[in-house]
Hints:
By secondary structure, the chain is an alpha/beta fold. It is built from 15 helices and 19 strands. A 7-stranded mixed beta sheet has the order 7-6-15-16-17-14-18. The longest helix has 20 residues, at 116-135. It starts with a strand and ends with a helix.
Amino acid sequence: xxxxxxxxxxxxxxxxxxxxxxxxxxxxxxxxxxxxxxxxxxxxxxxxxxxxxxxxxxxxxxxxxxxxxxxxxxxxxxxxxxxxxxxxxxxxxxxxxxxxxxxxxxxxxxxxxxxxxxxxxxxxxxxxxxxxxxxxxxxxxxxxxxxxxxxxxxxxxxxxxxxxxxxxxxxxxxxxxxxxxxxxxxxxxxxxxxxxxxxxxxxxxxxxxxxxxxxxxxxxxxxxxxxxxxxxxxxxxxxxxxxxxxxxxxxxxxxxxxxxxxxxxxxxxxxxxxxxxxxxxxxxxxxxxxxxxxxxxxxxxxxxxxxxxxxxxxxxxxxxxxxxxxxxxxxxxxxxxxxxxxxxxxxxxxxxxxxxxxxxxxxxxxxxxxxxxxxxxxxxxxxxxxxxxxxxxxxxxxxxxxxxxxxxxxxxxxxxxxxxxxxxxxxxxxxxxxxxxxxxxxxxxxxxxxxxxxxxxxxxxxxxxxxxxxxxxxxxxxxxxxxxxx
Length: 486
């Protein structure tokens, strides 16, 4: 049986591997010139940037994926645990360095707030228990019924679905800086800490317990590894192949249209943006209305800058968070009152700090990210204003002049997310994991209106992020394998 897959991001590549291993004939169709979906590379003037995902968390999820094919990540790429994991800046000469191991992080907390070390140890014990339940079990379920969430272990923790991360953290810790460090990881879930159920503290274990890793050569090495594995399993990958329509006959998906040409298939799986995927169908075959999407909470979009510097930078780590402005105000300006932030938090990474050949000798590559509300106005003038805002603060906080060392800069924002990825309102991370958008409450893997049509990726289960995307690909493939008993 033939499966056509729309898109070639993490979830699509993962699904293609599982389906090919199970005996399906699999072909991927990617609209852009390279595979990877939102995980792509920019190579310019000797500098190499990961355009999209830049954090390698939850290494066990990657290991589990490759293990399903009797492989290991090390068969394809080298992995290094970053030390330090990252730095968080709160102002001039005011920063916290997060170590690569929990005992040192506990000591750091204790040095900032007396008694917080033991509280962190207790918090992390609970976070690890949640991680074991979530990542080793719940997130691999297909999101079809509330009963998937009902286990002996989850019934013991039901109260955690009626509290939130922000409330829990503030019960234990008083220091504002420590609170922000603990609230930061759930931003990967695309929602405010105050809207994120307590159970999601497992992200803190992913951070402090498992650490932050980096593939040699950048995150795109993971995409290349999955592409190689898929092709070894017999998957055919087509690039520069933008899908114009999903063909439906007798309420059954029977193929796709590319450049006016019909490509027949027994099964269609879309790893493209879920909202966009349904626009490839006639309106009567769409499961979710425009009103449905309008009412959902989406993860932020991003204003991204890729900058080449003609010198090595000082006082920075591989990953850096700049929390020197009002955390809650910026969050509110993303979710509650969508607008360009008054003063933006931002993130910066410099992979050339730890990686060779990612920048010319004596130079540095800089990736800057400002989280913003999806769907807001995006102009060159606004991009320039916000670049100046963050570079001015970056220079002041890290005590160095960098503006005069910029060789080039390129930007990527809302309009680009729409153009390049058909992203709904230009969101960067999919749909947020709030309590009302968790598990069975997310858009479904299998179409309710068209047989043989399936979906995978950040807008369905289990949610946003790279490891969840790998898992989503497995969930979708397992549903197809189950339905067709191949």
